[in-house]
Amino acid sequence: MIRNKHYLHYVALYVLAFVSLFPLLWAISNSFRTNQEIYKYAMPFTYKTLVPVEPTFDNYITLFRKFDFFKAIINTSVQIVILVFSGCLVNSVAAFAFVTFDFKFKNVLFAFFLVSFMIPFESTALPLYNLIRAFNWVDTLPALIFPGIANGLVLFLFRQFFQDIPVGFVEAARVDGASWRHIYMKIIFPLSIPVFITAGLMMFITYWNAYLWPLLVARSRSIFTIQIALSKLKMENETLWSYWYAGSVISALLPLLLFLPFQKYFVEGITSSGIKG
For residue 268, what pLDDT is reported? Predict the structure, then answer.
């Protein structure tokens, strides 16, 4: 009886895994089809619905040659590398200050940062756009980067993690004459690698999938991000489904390839950052 229950658990897990992976499998399959074949075998549901009858790589080739998709990947990668590096640095230093120093309105200021990441971005997009326009940054790389550096959620993760670091480490270093920069670089940073990886992955996923803000400030093809490049495949009178599926597969698999090697550190950073309660 117990063995049968285990079998039922495995069957349920396989079913759930298939349901979860079906959209990705569907997209991968259709990325190797022509538009005609996508519609031809959609109904009724058979093995041909998931397995291309005449697989072709033309969708991927055309995506990079005609639609300059590689440029969008490079633009997004450059934006995210700068954002992750500067965001982790700025937010971790700010969190270190909140944990280490006592200053006026400290708790009020931290509460303000907490509230900032609870406000929907749609409600602040237009005021932020007006600010970016005042700096003449519209349609430039800084417009994609600077608004995302300060992040209330990332600051919260760092602060909660730093609070678990024994105060004696910092006090002993200060007694030995270490500067605050030395303490941060030689003590805090090496102990905080998991939360740095967690924060970096969170920022990566957020800005890799960002659509609204790049849509507002990135107008020329030269700085299109990957999500904007994908949206351009949906034309006024036609959607280029085969190219759209190919682009979506690339957009989904690249973060997955980055996330899988670091998932252990991601979980460790989450569980040790204070979210545990």
Answer: 64
**Closest-CA residue to 110 (of 98, 92, 124):** 98
**Distance in angstroms (rounded) separating the CA atoms of residues 118 and 100:** 25
Which pLDDT does position 271 carry in this prediction?
62
pLDDT digits (tens, 9 = 90+) for 117-168: 788 888 888 899 999 999 999 999 999 999 999 888 899 989 988 988 888 8
- Write down all domains in the chain, each with its CATH number in brackets: 2-61 (no CATH), 72-237+254-271 (1.10.3720.10)
Sorting pLDDT into bands at 50, 70 and 90, what band is 73?
very high
Number of C-beta neighbours around residue 132 at 10 A: 21
Q: Residue 119: which of 89, 152, 150 has the closest Cα?
A: 152
The DSSP line for the chain is -HHHHHHHHHHHHHHHHHHHHHHHHHHHHHTTS-HHHHHHTSSS--HHHHS-SS--SHHHHHHHHTS-HHHHHHHHHHHHHHHHHHHHHHHHHHHHHHHH---TTHHHHHHHHHHHTTS-HHHHHHHHHHHHHHTT-TTSHHHHHGGGTS-HHHHHHHHHHHHTS-HHHHHHHHHTT--HHHHIIIIIHHHTHHHHHHHHHHHHHHHHS--HHHHHH--SGGG--HHHHHHTTB-SS-B-HHHHHHHHHHHHHHHHHHHGGGHHHHHHHHHTTTTT-
CB neighbourhood size of 141 (10 A):
16
pLDDT of 77 reads 92
Cα dihedral 51, 56, 61, 67, rounded to 10, equals -70
pTM to 2 decimal places: 0.82
pLDDT at 37: 81
